[in-house]
């Protein structure tokens, strides 16, 4: 694969107007008619263009392509073996297990000990270089666990900057973070937070240098757990995801068609049924000046090897798809479907040189159990598949210029591809909702929080699909668990009984607080707060000024015993 397959990593150095023009050209190239109506969303398909051709993959150099001896337009049915996997969680936790138990299946508590150890090591190293930091004290696994919980809260209640979580303004106090930790302590944890030993990684250019050494400790633990925690459904998706990062980094990528255009690229295998991420690889760029040949094929093989033999159906886009790859997958009892670039080797000229113009026109060629399909809508889209009967057809609805809606014939493979190619997009959507995203100067912190988010989303899916954790309403109906409530409860459990900020515990302080809770006469009658709990309606003119509630004289003590027990200890 030549540089055209390297996803635009060499945009760095071009003038902004050049990059913008190139980006606009790509977006214009893929623009669809807004009047289209369809039960098949084809807006994300990879339409062909001569601009995307790859010289080294030119189809005209293929003997098979020139002669077409092995390809035929006489379509025939072929056997598609039944999927023999068992999708779902591999570990069934008991009914008393909570959110943190599911999270620990993927992000074990041992990692907290390791992070605390490496954070302390890094703090000592920095102080050896720059002098003693009098405000730093060694951290613990409990504090690191609470630190992660605080980051989850910040992902739910987003403020423009961290200082606002510690504001004295009552409008900015709902998170409760300032009750658990001081601003200075949080700053110090942000400053020294570390997850690996830098001294163990050889210098750049030396043998054994690891570009991902900063997070290797975490990667080596969670990747096997992601793979083993959940058996994927028959359909799986392989695609790229982006972690936003705009700082300096040797393997930062530029992908103009992604919502996140600049950052760290991650190859990912996800389940389109729920967005569960089973495997991912961080793309660290080309080695030296050598561009990896067949990068897309290698990625698919790496991310799917662990599920070969079960007749899974893999869905990918034209960056990955090739005839050789699909043949290899078939030999390993795995089917595949994906858009394909018309300059890929081995495609017949009937497909590569097709000039379809009429909406609904289709050309299909078959070689063995491999089918190449070209179908024209507003543009021509080309697919390769080994998992769909080529004789199966369906229809899509299209709105014409006069306002009428017509049914347009469409090969079934288009509908199947559109339905199941969105696994990684679904995982991205889950991860971007309430995601942990704090600005940092170090690129690896963005990657670390990405991994934490993946673990949280996957843990949410595990709990959601657990037969022992079905939520039922008072009427007996089942209710779907939401990611928001999962994250809130997980944050509470991670924080636990951690109080990094000193609580008011002295007797003198409690007595001082108690002086402000005193019955007074209030101008306006309102319902007694304590009586209303017993469904008794009384409207006294007495109450507590500190609590700003109306209370009967006899209700004053029981109300405060419930709400402020510390005043009576």
Offer a quick outline of the entry.
This protein has 569 residues and is α+β, with helices and mostly antiparallel strands.
Percent in strands: 5-15%
What value does the Rg take, in angstroms? 30 Å
Number of strands: 18
Spans of at least 5 consecutive residues with low confidence: 1-14, 24-44, 46-68, 504-515
How would the global form be characterised? globular
**What's the average pLDDT?**
84
Q: Give the termini separation.
A: 73 Å
Helix share, percent: 25-40%
Number of H- or I-type helical stretches:
17
Protein name: PiggyBac transposable element-derived protein domain-containing protein
Biased composition (Acidic residues): 36-58
Domain PiggyBac transposable element-derived protein: 100-460
Pfam families: DDE_Tnp_1_7 (PF13843)
Structural overview:
With 569 residues, the chain is an alpha+beta fold. It folds into three domains: 3-85 and 232-428, no CATH class; 99-206 and 438-493, no CATH class; 507-568. The chain is 33% helix and 15% strand. It is built from 17 helices and 18 strands. It has helices spanning 16-29, 63-67, 99-106, 110-130, 141-156, 183-192, 216-229, 295-304, 323-331, 349-352, 412-420, 423-432, 443-464, 483-495, 507-514, 529-533, 556-563; strands spanning 88-89, 230-231, 235-244, 253-254, 262-270, 277-282, 313-316, 335-339, 362-367, 370-376, 380-385, 393-399, 405-411, 471-472, 478-479, 519-521, 542-544, 549-550. Strand 4 (253-254) and strand 5 (262-270) form a beta hairpin. The protein is globular. The termini are far apart. Residues 1-14, 24-44, 46-68 and 504-515 have low confidence and may be disordered. InterPro entries: PGBD. Residues 100-460 form the PiggyBac transposable element-derived protein domain. Residues 36-58 have a biased composition (Acidic residues). It comes from Pinctada imbricata (Atlantic pearl-oyster).
């Amino acid at each position: 694969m030549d540089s055209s397959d390297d996803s635009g990593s060499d945009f760095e150095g071009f003038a902004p107007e050049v990059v913008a023009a190139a980006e606009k050209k790509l977006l214009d190239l893929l623009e669809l008619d807004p009047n289209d109506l369809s039960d098949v969303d084809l807006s994300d398909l990879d339409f062909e263009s001569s601009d995307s051709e790859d010289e080294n993959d030119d189809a005209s150099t293929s003997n098979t392509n020139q002669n077409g001896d092995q390809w035929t337009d006489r379509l025939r049915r072929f056997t598609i073996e039944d999927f023999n996997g068992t999708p779902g969680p591999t570990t069934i936790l008991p009914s008393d297990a909570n959110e943190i138990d599911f999270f620990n299946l993927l992000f074990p508590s041992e990692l907290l000990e390791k992070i605390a150890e490496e954070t302390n090591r890094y703090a000592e190293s920095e102080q050896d270089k720059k002098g003693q930091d009098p405000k730093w004290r060694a951290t613990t696994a409990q504090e690191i666990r609470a630190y992660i919980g605080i980051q989850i809260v910040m992902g739910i209640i987003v403020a423009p900057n961290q200082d606002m979580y510690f504001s004295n303004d009552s409008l900015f106090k709902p998170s409760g973070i300032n009750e658990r930790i001081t601003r200075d302590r949080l700053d110090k944890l942000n400053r020294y937070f570390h997850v690996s030993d830098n001294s163990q990684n050889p210098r750049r250019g030396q043998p054994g240098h690891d570009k991902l050494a900063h997070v290797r400790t975490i990667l080596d633990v969670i990747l096997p757990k992601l793979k083993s925690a959940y058996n994927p459904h028959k359909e799986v998706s392989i695609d790229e995801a982006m972690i936003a990062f705009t700082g300096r980094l040797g393997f930062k990528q530029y992908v103009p068609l992604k919502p996140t255009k600049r950052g760290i690229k991650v190859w990912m295998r996800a389940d389109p049924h729920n967005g569960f991420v089973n495997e991912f690889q961080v793309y660290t760029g080309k080695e030296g000046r050598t561009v990896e040949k067949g990068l897309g094929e290698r990625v698919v093989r790496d991310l799917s090897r662990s599920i070969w033999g079960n007749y899974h159906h893999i869905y990918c886009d034209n960056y990955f798809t090739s005839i050789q790859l699909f043949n290899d997958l078939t030999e390993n009892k795995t089917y595949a479907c994906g858009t394909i670039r018309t300059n890929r080797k081995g495609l017949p000229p009937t497909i590569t040189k097709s000039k379809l113009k009429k909406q609904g026109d289709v050309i299909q060629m078959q070689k063995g159990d491999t089918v190449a399909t070209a179908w024209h809508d507003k543009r021509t889209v080309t697919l390769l598949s080994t998992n769909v009967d080529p004789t199966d057809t369906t229809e899509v609805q299209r709105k014409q210029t006069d306002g009428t809606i017509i049914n347009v014939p469409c090969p079934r493979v288009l509908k199947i591809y559109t339905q199941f190619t969105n696994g990684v997009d679904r995982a991205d959507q889950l991860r971007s909702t309430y995601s942990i995203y704090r600005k940092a100067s170090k690129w690896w912190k963005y990657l670390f929080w990405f991994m934490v988010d993946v673990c949280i989303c996957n843990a949410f899916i595990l709990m959601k699909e657990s037969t022992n954790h079905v939520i039922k309403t008072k009427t007996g109906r089942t209710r779907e668990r939401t990611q928001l409530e999962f994250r809130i409860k997980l944050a509470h459990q991670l924080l636990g009984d951690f109080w990094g900020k000193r609580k008011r515990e002295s007797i003198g302080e409690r007595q001082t607080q108690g002086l402000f809770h005193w019955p007074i006469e209030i101008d306006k009658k309102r319902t007694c707060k304590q009586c209303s709990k017993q469904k008794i309606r009384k409207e006294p003119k007495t109450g507590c000024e500190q609590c700003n509630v109306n209370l009967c004289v006899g209700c004053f003590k029981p109300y405060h015993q419930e709400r402020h027990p510390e005043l009576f200890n």
